[in-house]
């Protein structure tokens, strides 16, 4: 008989812990508040956007060629996977033209960003002037 009563007691304690969880009376600590998201470039629409990497310039060219050779493939996932596989096996001499394009675009971005920061520091880009465009 003792074994039955012990098993009944353990079942009762299991049920009480389940009820405590359901009713919200568990001993767990409350969840911490989530940290705030960091502001992004989208917060300021006048800030210049970063240019794509060399791989994305290669992908533009590759996509056109691949779609011409394989018109039945419509999935961007398959095209992107094929592009990535090809990019990995390319040697540096083949990639240089895309790195050159990316470097030129990056230099233009850095100039535009410097001009943006200069205008922002001088006060030309204030919140009051931003409200005019909304």
TrEMBL record:
Q: Name one GO molecular function term.
A: DNA binding
Task: Establish whether keyword Metal-binding is in the entry.
Answer: no
Q: Which SUPFAM superfamilies does the UniProt entry name for this protein?
A: HMG-box
Entry GO terms, CC: nucleus
Q: Extract the Gene3D superfamilies matched here.
A: High mobility group box domain (1.10.30.10)
Q: Residue ranges under compositional bias (Basic and acidic residues)?
A: 1-12
Q: Please note every region of biased composition (Polar residues).
A: 13-28
Q: Where in the cell is it found?
A: Nucleus
Q: Which keywords has UniProt assigned to this entry?
A: DNA-binding, Nucleus
Task: Give residue spans, biased composition: Basic residues.
Answer: 29-39
Question: What PANTHER family does the record tag this protein with?
Answer: HIGH MOBILITY GROUP B PROTEIN 14 (PTHR46261:SF12), HIGH MOBILITY GROUP B PROTEIN 4-RELATED (PTHR46261)
What is the name attached to this protein's record? Answer: HMG box domain-containing protein
